[in-house]
Amino acid sequence: QVQLVESGGGLVQAGGSLRLSCAASGRTFSTYAMGWFRQAPGKEREFLARIRWTSGAATYADSAKGRFTVSRDNAKNTVYLQLDSLKPEDTAVYYCANKPSQFRDYDYWGQGTQVTVSS
């Protein structure tokens, strides 16, 4: 199993920044990539970004390109999501998830961290 714990959410004004962290423990050696998602009230969960655990190669959704940056620190088993130029519509619960291989879906999820952007 892989345990994931997000942190770093909070209340920020529009135009501000936050850095979310996702600390992984357990069978992290079996991780192919880590992904970031968000879910706003009344909306479906939305993919934001993914980072390969070994190479660090990143993939972004169009909604995240230019404002969000994913990174990882292998020594700390931690993945980050830098959120810049935040907008009120970015308000959501943000989740990280473990992707065990290229062809398998995300299998373990964190509990989420709330990001609230005020106008």
Layout of helices and strands, plus pairs?
Blueprint (H helix, E strand, L loop, with lengths): L1 E6 L2 E4 L4 E9 L6 E7 L6 E7 L5 E3 L7 E6 L4 E6 L8 E8 L8 E2 L3 E6 L1
Parallel strand pairs: 2-11
Antiparallel strand pairs: 1-3, 3-8, 4-5, 4-9, 5-6, 7-8, 9-10, 9-11
**Shape label:** globular
Cα-atom Rg, whole angstroms?
13 Å
Helix content: under 10%
Strand content: over 45%
Secondary-structure class: mainly beta
The major pleated sheet works out as:
7 strands, mixed
Number of helical regions: 0
Order of helices and strands: EEEEEEEEEEE
Give an overview in words.
This protein is mainly beta and 119 residues long. It has no helices and 11 strands. It has strands spanning 2-7, 10-13, 18-26, 33-39, 46-52, 58-60, 68-73, 78-83, 92-99, 108-109, 113-118. Strands 2, 4, 5, 6, 9, 10 and 11 form a 7-stranded mixed beta sheet that branches. A hairpin with a 4-residue loop joins strand 7 (68-73) and strand 8. It is globular, with a radius of gyration of 13 Å. The mean pLDDT is 95.
List keywords for this structure.
single chain; 119 residues; 7-stranded mixed β-sheet
